[in-house]
Design a protein that fits this description.
This protein is an alpha+beta fold and 325 residues long. The protein folds into two domains: 139 residues, Gcn5-related N-acetyltransferase (GNAT) (Aminopeptidase, 3-Layer(aba) Sandwich); 148 residues, Aminopeptidase (3-Layer(aba) Sandwich), CATH 3.40.630. The chain is built from nine helices and 15 strands. The longest helix is centred in the C-terminal third of the chain and has 17 residues. The strands form two sheets. Strands 1, 4, 5, 6, 7, 8, 9, 10, 11, 12, 13, 14 and 15 form a 13-stranded mixed sheet that branches. 28% of the residues lie in helices and 36% in strands.
Length: 325
Amino acid sequence: MSIKVRVGTRQDIDALVDVECSDVEKWYHFSSTGRGDATSYEELSTLERTMHGGPWMDPSALARYWKTIEQLGIIPLVAEIEGKVVGHLDAIISNELPLGHFLYLDVLMVHKDYRRRGVARTLIEEAENLARLRKAGFMLVQPQQYEGPSGLTYRSCGFEKAFDAYELQTPVDHPNTPSGVQLISIPQVQEPPVKTHAMVCGWYNISAKTWYYGVNPDLESLRFFSCSTLALSAIADQGIYFLHLGQNRFDHSKGSLSLWSPTPSNQRELHDAFQAAKASASWLGIETLTTKTIERYVPTLEKMGFKVGSRVEPYLTKDIDRPSP
């Protein structure tokens, strides 16, 4: 059995949707209050289908997402067996603070009927070849489950634990925007500040992709769930801080925060930037802010009033010059 890996194209959209949907046992309706009754795939709207796993669950949604793939430089690796698409792995070359130049492995999926045949391993090995070609120093991934199939697969390919990740939260408490901070909207055309600013919190993806979704929110989803987002620059005396805020889809009293800080940061101004973020969250009716970060930034966030809620799946890494087992 020969597994062929190539770069995917728009012509692969239907096949990629088939791969992703193979893992869904039941489909459900969704409303602004949450998950509803079970139903068939055909009865669901495009948005409801994406609620089961993102744009890969619907051809029209994936066609729209392909523009994001092109804009972010995502490389969609596709695996074939005898001409049939049986798996895919999205890879992103990034050069950002504080990590440097690396290849991020974003979305990995193998068709349910073709697992345990070496498809995932072949995709990962091809990603390593790509990283070597693009002169990336290492590969990085956050598996869905460290002790589950995805984590075990990556570790069998030579990946090791790099650092832990955590979810944190803080009450908003309706503070005022500090007098030394000016807030202005971030335009969609503004380039992500990934080489000048570190993403202190908001580690839902790598910095460039988190930034993209903050300034290009899914307007259809916002309308459907009646929630709001903000993308703001917090201008202080010595630096500019960037923050993205969004209401939870099902509970608008909760929201998420991503914040970028110049490096090195001024601790007083960083504190003011977080206070400005909380003030902005209060404008949206958010009472509790949640975020996600890596272990190096946990002490900073604790100083800003956040408390660790839980530890989530760690990041794994593999140096490019380290051979696979």
